Amino acid sequence: MNDAKLIFGVIGGSLLLLIVVALGMSRMTGDQMGGEVKEISGEERLVMGAEDAKVEVVEFSDFQCPACKAAQGLVKQVQNREGVRFVFRHMPLSSIHKNALIAAEAAEAAHDQGKFWEYHDLLFERQGEWAEEKEIEVKLSDYAEELGLDREMFVESLEEGRHKELVMNDYGEAMRLGVRGTPTFFVNGKQTAVGDLLRAVEAELAE
């Protein structure tokens, strides 16, 4: 009995130590990410919020990324916060997400017709439908038509690759900034962990 208690005690103590270390590393990572202010260059096209907002949040995202989809509830909270300007930037991880680039181009084609955010939301909502779709252009065009966009104009944009350079410019800026995964957020130029996003926004608004 004593041996059993000793074994369980050792196991329990080890688990507690692992939890403490993990929490400490998580906090250290968040602090490190938020320390350096970086100048983010490139065109800000996909924006919600006033230009003179006190806080600017920039997200680098991939429409086929499950973690980006999971973060959408958090993103909505930030977008709806008074005093926040939210900027979306593309980072399609094409090496692991085969339809990410064309989805980003499709979102830009929707932007041409004034419905980027509606298309953005639909892509994340239906991610499971199109992520592995072989006839992806047809599926993306169906979504455009569902939102009331001009299908012919939309299809032409995709066929011509009209927005590929814009998307890849965003991707290049992400690489320059040292971004290695999605979603990645910057709050007033400070790279911020997903779990610290709301706290960081509130801290900036309070200053």
UniProtKB/TrEMBL annotation:
Alphabetical list of SUPFAM superfamilies matching this protein: Thioredoxin-like
UniProt-listed Pfam families: Thioredoxin_4
Annotated InterPro entries: Thioredoxin-like_fold, Thioredoxin-like_sf, Thioredoxin_domain
A GO MF label: oxidoreductase activity
Domain of life of the organism encoding this protein: Bacteria
Protein name per UniProt: DSBA oxidoreductase
Similarity annotation: Belongs to the thioredoxin family. DsbA subfamily.
Domain Thioredoxin per the UniProt entry, residue ranges: 14-206
Chain ranges passing through the membrane: 6-25
Coiled-coil ranges from the UniProt annotation: none
Entry keyword set: Disulfide bond, Membrane, Oxidoreductase, Redox-active center, Signal, Transmembrane, Transmembrane helix
Species assigned in the record: Candidatus Chazhemtobacterium aquaticus
